[in-house]
Design a protein that fits this description.
Structural class: alpha/beta
Strand content: 15-25%
Radius of gyration: 18 Å
Order of helices and strands: HEHEHEHEHHEHHEHHEHEH
Largest sheet: 8 strands, parallel, barrel
Number of strands: 8
Helix content: 40-55%
Shape: globular
Strand order of the largest sheet: 1-2-3-4-5-6-7-8
Amino acid sequence: MKASFRSRLKHGETLLGTLVTLSSPEVAEILAEAGFDWLFIDMEHSPLDVREAQAILQAVGERCACVLRVPLNDEIWIKKALDIGATGIIIPQVNSRQEAERAVRFCKYPPQGSRGVGVARAQGYGARLQDYLDSANDDVAVIVQAEHIDGVSRIQEIVSVAGVDAVLVGPYDLSASMGKIGNVTDAEVQAAIARVKGECTSTHVPIGIFAATAEAAKPFMHEGYSLIAVVIDTLFLVEAANQLVRQLRE
């Protein structure tokens, strides 16, 4: 049997993904065919709604894992994202133990949490309801984001929360919270990221990060990062279009 995304993550595999922000299922299908381990379906910074996200999951199918970032640490958003069949959930701006516990609680069925039981795509529209209920708490990945200096200062208590499967660093928001917006290579920003990395390493919690280019991502692949999100779907189009125009005008 193929290992689940959560199992691969917890075993420290290097899992390469990219961000999906466009509402086109075809774009997501193309990216899945490219061989990524997972797709980062972003419902926080994109106009994607739940129905559009479900269409993306349906198009991708079993090609790779689809992990949804919800707009906020909210029970309804998390419930809907899981019910459409998300492999995992990314929760932004988790800055305390209480917020991490809240995220886990919303992602887990009782007795580990308080997720409501409904019939939707994740359960085969009812055809596999009991099988899903029996396995979801073991299969769904709960990923919290460290993207604010407040979260960095409390990272030890955040990673101690049972049910947190990984921490995903958001370097750009982190830099903004430190008064260095966009300057992700600043020494103090890098020190904050290193603090998160060190705490995750010492507690055996997988760590991930976003990288804007392949070149920026490569070092993370050799530094023990498990969950690496590289580039955004729109940037693939931007870069390819700009390159073509440059080549034609030379």
